[in-house]
Structures are given as C-alpha cells and as structure tokens.
Amino acid sequence: MSDAPTVARDGPSDTTSLWAGTLTLGRNGVAVARRAVTKGAGYRSYEVHQRMRVRQSTEKLNPLRLVSPDFARDPYPAFEILRENYPCYRDWIGNAYWITRYDDVTSVFTDEANFESRSKLWFYGAEGFGRDLRSEAPVIVAQARGMDRHAADVAQTVIDSFAGAGRADLALDFAARYPLELLARILDLPAGDFDAFAAHWFAMQRGWDWDPRAERDGLQAMGAMADQLRPLLEARRVTPGEDLISAIASLDLEGGPATAEDLVTTLLEADHETLHGGLANLWQLLLTHPDQLHRVAADRRLVKFAWLETLRHSAPLLSARRFARQEVERFGLLIPEGALVICVGAAGNRDPRIFSEPDRFHVERKDLCPREPRGQYRADGLPAGIALGLGKPTKYPAVPEDRPRSIYALTRDVAVTASNVLLDRLGDIRLAPGVAPSPRSLRLGEMHACWSLPALFTAR
Amino acid sequence: MTTACPFAQTLERMTSETAEPVRSAADFPLMPVGQACDMGHAPDGTPLLDPRIFDSREFFRNPYPYYRIMRDHYPVFRDKLHNCYYVTRYEDITRCYFDDEGFNTIPKGSSSGVLGNTQLELSGVEHKRRRNLYGQHLVGQSLEARIPIIERLADSWITSWDQMAKEGKVVRDEGGKRTVEIGKAFANEFPISVVCGVLGFPDEARGQFYYWYNSMMSGLGGSETQKMGLEARQDLEDYVQGMVDERRVRPTYLYDRDGKIVGKDIISKLCETKIDGDYLSTEEITSNIALVVGGGGETTRGAIMNMWYLLLQHSDQATTVLGDESHWDKVFHETLRHSTPIGGQPRHNSFDLLMHGQHVPAGSLMNMVDVSANHDDRIFKDPERFDVFRPDLYSGKLLRSGYSSDGRHSHMAFGVGPHLCPGAWIAHQEATIGSKVLSRRMKNPRIRVDLMPKDIDGVSLAPVGLGAARELWLEYDLV
What we know:
The structure holds two protein chains of two kinds.
Chain A: E1 6-7, E2 23-25, E3 31-33, H1 69-73, H2 76-85, E4 88-91, E5 96-99, H3 102-109, E6 115-116, H4 120-124, H5 137-163, E7 167-169, H6 170-187, H7 194-206, H8 212-238, H9 244-249, H10 260-269, H11 273-288, H12 290-298, H13 302-313, E8 320-324, E9 328-330, E10 333-335, E11 340-343, H14 345-348, H15 407-425, E12 426-431, E13 439-441, E14 448-450, E15 454-459
Parallel strand pairs in A: 5-11
Antiparallel strand pairs in A: 2-3, 4-5, 6-8, 7-15, 8-11, 9-10, 12-15, 13-14
Helix pairs in contact in A: 5-6, 5-15, 6-11, 7-8, 8-10, 11-13, 11-15, 13-15
Chain B: H1 7-15, H2 57-61, H3 64-73, E1 76-79, E2 84-87, H4 90-98, E3 103-104, H5 112-115, H6 124-135, H7 140-159, H8 161-167, E4 171-174, E5 177-181, H9 182-187, H10 190-199, H11 206-219, H12 226-249, E6 253-255, E7 261-264, H13 266-271, E8 274-275, E9 278-279, H14 282-313, H15 315-323, H16 328-338, E10 344-349, E11 353-355, E12 358-360, E13 365-369, H17 370-373, E14 404-405, E15 408-409, H18 424-441, E16 443-447, E17 473-477
Parallel strand pairs in B: 2-13
Antiparallel strand pairs in B: 1-2, 3-10, 4-5, 5-17, 6-7, 8-9, 10-13, 11-12, 14-15, 16-17
C-alpha cells in the first residue's frame, strides 16, 4: 500500500488551532505532546451541524426520478416540483444540491468567490491533455471573424443539400449539420476531412460526463482528432491563413507553441450545445406554433426575439455544475466545501416569479430582456433568459466597435442569420403531417434538444 | 483512426433507440451470482463499470463481482453520476478510517437528516469526548452486567412462540414440527427490546419503538419515506425529552434477576454527565439515543438473520456449530465478513489527494465500502466462500478492531479506528447469546426452502446480497 493515500495539502497549512504545541500530563505524569490539529473541513464546532426537520423533508420528489428515462425525455415537471417546493434540493442519490429559482441560479453564477466551475477535461480526468486557449485574443478574433464571414454562405450550402427534395428533417439536416459545417469552415478544414471530424466531435463532446463507455469513446476521439488536425496545424504554422487553426498555430504562448492537443482541448471546452440545440428547438417551437412562425416570417426583426425566447423556453443546456470552494451558508442550508451545486438554468427560465406565463412560447414576450441571454444582469430592468455553456464573459467588452462581440452575441447573430436564410429559401414551411416533435436528451444529462423534425416546404 | 462514416450515419447511430440498450438502472440483466454483466471494455481490456448499476436490483442481490472489478481495476473508483468515489480495498479503507483528520465525517452523508446530529458526523476531539460518554455504557463491565438481561429477553421471546403458534401466522405447529419465521418472530424486535432494556425504556413502549426504528431506517437516503423517518425521529425525540426531564430529577435503575440494582440506565447516567462543566443538553442526548435505537437494531437484526440463513445452508458446518456452542463467535464473525449488513461509511477528504493515481479534490464524498473490504482476496482467501472455520479471519470472543497478525485479520463490518462501531460488543453479545438460546430451544433446525424467496433460476435460495435476509422460515422438531 505504498502508493496510497498520498495526502497533498494545499492552501494555508494553518496550525494555529488552540491545541498546537500544548503539553498535557498523561496517565503516568509524563508530558504528552498533543497532536497539532490542522484546520480542515472536518474540524468545526458541534453547533454548526445542521439537522433536517420534518418540514425540510423532500418526499415530493424521489431523487431516483432525476436519473430516470422520463427525466431525460421531459425534465420540466420535476423542475417545477423542485422550484416550487425545494429551492435548494439535497439530492442524496446524486450527492448534489439542485438550485432551480431564477434569482438563486444567477446568484450562484455570479458568485465566483464561493463557487467554481470545472473544465470538461477535469470531468474526463485528463487534465494534462491540452491547454484551453479560448480566452487568447487572436483566437477570439479569428472565431468572431469566421462566424461573421461564413454564417450566411454555409447556411446556403447546407440548405442547398436538401432544398430540392421538398422535405427534410430540420433537426438533423439543418440544426445538427449547420454548426459543424460552420466550424469546419472557421477551421478551414479540407472537405474530405469533414465526416471523420464530425464523428470525432460528437464522440468527444458526449464523453466527459458519467457514462464510462462514452468516456472511453470520447478519449479515443480526442486522440484521433488531434492526429487528424496535427498536419494542418504544422502546415499553417509555416503558411498561416485567416482561419482559427492558423490563429492557434501562431500564438506566442508561455509554455511553448500550441500543439494539436491544445487545439482539440480548445474545441472541446467551447460550447457546442447552444447553436445546435438552440436551432433545433427554435424550429421545433416555430413549426409547432404556426401563428408565431407566420409573424416571424412576416417581420424578420422578430427572428432574434424568437431565438432569445427559445433559449428561455427550451434551453438546450439544462443546467451547469458548480463546486463550492469553501463551506458556505446559502439558501437556508450549509453547503460544505467541495459540494456539487447543480444550477438549473432551464428551471430558472420558467420561474413564474420572473416571467409571466413561463411555460408559454411567445416570441413577442414583453418581460424578456432582448439583450444577451446571460441572466446575470438585467438590462432595462428586464430579466434575460439564462443560457448556459457559452463560457465566461471575455475580458473584451462588447461595446467598442473594434472589439469582438461576446460569444453570446456571436452565436445569436449566427443563429439569426441561418434562420433568415432558411426562411428565404424555404417557402410555406410546415410540419410533416402526423408528427409531434419534442425535445429530449439522447443520454441522461446531455443536451435537451429536438432530434427529429420532419418538415415540408417549397424551395425558392 | 477509425474509418469515417458519412455525417448522416453518425447522427443516425447517435439518435436511434437501439444506441442505448440500457436506458435506466432497471434494464440491467439479473446475472448468475458471482458473475458481472457486460458493461463494455476499455481499449486495454479493462472492464468498464456503468455507475447506474449501483441503483439497480442486480447490484443489490449480486454486488460482489462488481466490487471485485473495482478492487482489481479501480481501487478508487470515480462515479460521476453519483458524484462520489468508492474506496474498495481492505488496506486502503483501514488506512482512511484511521486518518480521522484527512477523511472527515461532516454531515454530507445520508444519515444526517433522519438520525440528527450524531457522533457519526463528528470528528476529532468533539467526536472522542461524546463517543466515550455513550460508548462506556456498551462495553466492559457495564456490558457484562447486561448479559443476564439479554439472555432473559431472548428466552422470553422464544417462550412467547407458544402463544404465537395459536395465531398460526409467523409460528405454525404441524405434526410435531414447528415452522417459524425468525425475522418476525425474533430477530426484528429482539435487538430493539435489548436496546430498550439498556436505555431503560418501559416494556410497553417497545412496539412504538419498533415503529419509530423502522421508519427511521427506511427514511435514510432522502426518498419519499424520508418524511416518515423525520416524523418518527421527531416523535422519538419528544418522547425521550419527557423522559430526560423526568430522569434529571428522578434517576431510574437497572435490576438483575434477583432484583438487585445493577446500575443506572444510560439515560439517567447521561442526565448527570457533564462536558466542560455543563450538563448535556436534551438535544444531545436524544440525537444519540436515536442513533442507538437505529444502529442497535438494524445491524443486529441483520447479523442474526444472516447467521442462521448462511449457517443452515452449509449443513456440515451447521452440524459442528450446533454441537458446540463455543463456535457461535466464529459464526458471528464469518457471517459479518461474508454478508455484511451495513455496506460501509461515507467520508470526505479534507485535502486534495492522489490515491492510486486518482486525483480527488478536497471535500469529495468517498465511500468506504466495508462490504468490499471483507471480500478482498488480498486479505481473505476465496472470499465468496462461507467458512466458519476460516483460518485467515480473526474470530475470537473479543472483538479486535484492525487486528492483523499471524495471517489473520479482523473483518471490517464494524469499521476500524476512531469511529469503530461502539455497539460492536453489545451487538456481538446480542447475536451470539440470541443464537445460543435459539439453538438450545430448536431441535434439528432446517430452512423451509419452499417458503423462502428464490433466486432467478426459481430453484436455489436467493442470495443475501447487500444488507440482510428479509425473512427466514425455519422448521424444527417439537419434543
């Protein structure tokens, strides 16, 4: 047992406890040195321990429901029970605290001092794999430039592939395909590499959570993607273009030039759900609410509001995980150091304390802030929907013209552009008869998005 | 690099219904005992463990092959679904249990809600002081003084079977033979009545206690029965509070068979105990009474049930044991090793640590799996075999926590180190004395296989799995 457990103590090794160094008389009158007590999570006074009372029991929701197939299909009934009864739900099965009210969720997101997020690489248990370069200025610039330049023409190309047929599955042919085609263009990937890249991409993005098979496939995919991108990275170090790979290749980094693993890590940590799931859910909602679709088609300024309302009503990323940096008393409970806090943005987005008729999809909603769906602030005194997964705000504010917009605004603009192209190209777009599309998570904990949306149209 | 299939096929594979054959914990197949179901393999051939298995029926009845995978391949298994880590090897667990500072017991475990603020969730000095207050009543001379009471209680339970036989439900007489469901007729309530006796509760409160204890046990873990558990705990507390108030003024005593005073009962003693010059608060007393009621019941019940269930399935060993009462200590220890009623204890690491290559951030939940330690073949040879006369298990009359020499090791069912179960000694006495009394009163006992729950093949007896046998039908000859 020589290799276990090696205890690495970080933080201040504070031995100022009152026992340190004191001597007491032992049984035979021999002086006994008391063991110095290190200040750690385990040493607290008896009185701070919380005890559950009858009124705090959580019998209205069995924690097993939160890992059930029903929950993966439609989590909103469970979210409502949580939000209306247990604003900070102690989940004994998942060993977590669920936060579901709008104000509570946003308060945790903004509380960086008490709650930390952890990277997808940490969840993979592969922290040494590569560096996340998303916050490097040239990377932000290259990404923003790529999204702006290619959003419309990639949408045209994707729609070209199915427009002639008069019918398509918008969830797969459009919403799933478009973000990846756009990314491939931003990376300036050779056309022949796309299919392999896409397969690696999905395996990589689906692998970091709880499923060990998906984790195995994801780690394999990350290695394969690094092998695939390495020649491109090396070539563009010599002859850079304007694409994202070139921007990463020519970064001047402290720990040496960027490797293919750094590139893959940067792609891994980037959000992948919002554009894909947001487009799928936007069109699912529009096609199932034809009156709203007509209004949006007639007044294109509404496309942006439809997008924001979609992220509020059917957020593709339901929740984000935070870990308590230290013991903190919040929401009437003592949340211990290291505790997992699941912030359910999707439940907050349907909080009746904030939004009137929260379950209704309404593109001209008057009580939704039309700015970035951050939830952290309320421009104009209006609440914004909470959209997760787009990472921390950049250190470059969105306001001055010469600086890149935030990834929230970029994603929104791309989604609006693509949807406008779709509306231009496909006339009389409607749901195929006899289908009732709804969002679902393919696997527990994954993106909650529409995965099947057969539609009919007349190509223009 | 894998061959690339077109984009549409990638999506099709992802979204098809057959992509996920196991949709939930209920979908795991029930396997023959000792075999793990296939959950995939890593590229190097290491078996993978789907964490949903821990919520499945399959795992509950057949846990050992999965724990073996963990011990052999993932000594610190990271479960991202349940946000915890499992420590499964005997030596690792021993080391963690003894490191009270590095592996603390702050109340993130599921018992805190129902049992209240108990010493289970204290560490260091606070824990030591309180533990000694209660623990001293359950060991040594205090315990010796209670042995006659235990024996008398067991005897009177069995005598009451004659009365129960008239109802014909859990005790049935037929053709000179008597059939008894040991759980309902003895093991469920006998430990509770011992606890009541030790605590000095009146006999008539026993039924109420049994209900409270049941509710509290089923309320652990925060399911929909949690409210019942919390209510039971509140009621128990109110009841004990009245009793404490009374005994602060007028202490009560325990008597032996001849009516001589043995000593004060635990509550009366606690009422006059001081910490730092202050009397214990009623809250402190009641929480730990709740723990004694909860802990003193379930484990001992499980031990008695499993002892008889396992022993009678091994008839050669049963013949030897029933012929010589001195073997019951061995039966007790081997049963607790082979089928441990309490699965393990939660700990939280106070510091970031690296253990067997697994990084664990400070404050994580680390489950110390006692059940797995007891089946660690680094310690116990052929661990799935039930062998009362096993040479590598310490099974003496006295419990020896963390004993490890001459190739013999103590089992982990009571844990080791500062949190070693303080009720271990009294549980040992209850289970062995109870079993001795049973063996004296039952002639030629055997399992009524036809009345017992069966395994998946429909023929063999159901395995104990995690926890303890829920019912046990025995038949013996009336003389």
